[in-house]
Amino acid sequence: MSGNVRLSIVQMRDAGSSHACIDSAIRLIEEAAAEGAQIVCLQELFHGPYPCQSEDHRMFDLAESIPGPITERIGKIAKQHEIVVVAPIFEQRAAGLYHNSAAVIDADGSIAGVYRKMHIPDDPLFYEKFYFTPGDLGFTPISTRYAKLGIGICWDQWFPESARLLALAGAEILLYPTAIGWIDEEKQEFGPGQLDAWITTLRSHAIANGIWLAAPNRIGIEGRLEFWGSSLIVSPRGEIVVQGDHNTETPLTADCAIGETDLVRTHWPFMRDRRIDAYEGLLKRWID
Questions:
Q1: What pTM was estimated for this model as a whole?
Q2: How far apart are CA 107 and CA 148, in angstroms?
Q3: Helix extents (H) in 46-186
């Protein structure tokens, strides 16, 4: 693909119930469609609160299958507006088997593909290993009407290997739906550095792979977490084309010139100069 793709990312807060969150998401998707968006990406686990601040079996009630009621409802909106929607949900794959997933719904309302989060964190207030089985679909771009999308989810975005593999497999845009924020007692001391590290990491993936990249993040205070928003779309040169603030529910929209990837990779020939004959060590946990 060589033309422009109009991309929107949506940052929103927990609306209090799954039904209300889906209503909010649809309202913001329709705002993005009215702005001419062709691809809309929602934030991680958009259809409810971030469930992983504690190990609570009641939170499994948020999960549902793919396909299921959420993807069917989003699919109708996608078909109506002829847009692609990336809908990250708490997936119940089978009895007792759950994933942190993203359903990619094509512009005809069908499911173009699914990504299941590969890297599962276990940090204070981010107890995801209690809930989610690591993904088993690998880092495989998903083809849609408007672009080939490389999907990662939140913790995945910190790993350069996953961004590289998606780029090498032909992804035209990298999308990282996210739920990241400050722990209340850490914000004053560490908050600015944490936010800067996140933005720097995303920009570095765009630069190193010469690719468009976007990350929608949630907003709002949930328990002891303050999600910092700051959702952004980044060019293949690492320029922040558009960025949200810390607390406004909104779609953020930019035109992504997919053809720039060839130009950027020609002038910054990281792909050309990779020493694929010398990277065996990357397959080891540690080099002793």
A1: 0.97
A2: 13
A3: 69-81, 160-168
> What's the pLDDT tens digit per position in 242-283?
999 999 999 999 999 999 999 999 999 999 999 999 999 999
Catalytic residue among 41, 52, 91, 117: 117
Active site residue 256: no
Q: How far apart are CA 86 and CA 148, in angstroms?
A: 12
Tokens of 8: 């929107």
Percent of all residues in the chain with a pLDDT value above 70, rounded to a whole number: 99
SS3 10: strand
In Å, what is the CA distance from 172 to each residue of 2, 158, 186, 210? 10, 19, 36, 10
Q: Is 44 a known active-site residue?
A: yes
Tens digits of residue pLDDT in 126-138: 999 999 999 999 9
Active site residue 117: yes
CA dist., res. 144 & res. 175, Å (int): 13
* Position 2 confidence tier, pLDDT thresholds 50, 70, 90: low
Given 44, 91, 172, 249, the catalytic residue: 44
All domains of the chain in start order, with CATH:
4-283 (3.60.110.10)
Decide: residue 204, CB within 10 A, 0-12 exposed, 13-18 middle, 19+ buried.
middle
At 248, the amino acid letter reads T
Query: pLDDT digits over 141-190, tens only?
Result: 999 999 999 999 999 999 999 999 999 999 999 999 999 999 999 999 99
Q: What is residue 183's three-state secondary structure?
A: strand
Among 21, 41, 52, 154, the active-site one is 154
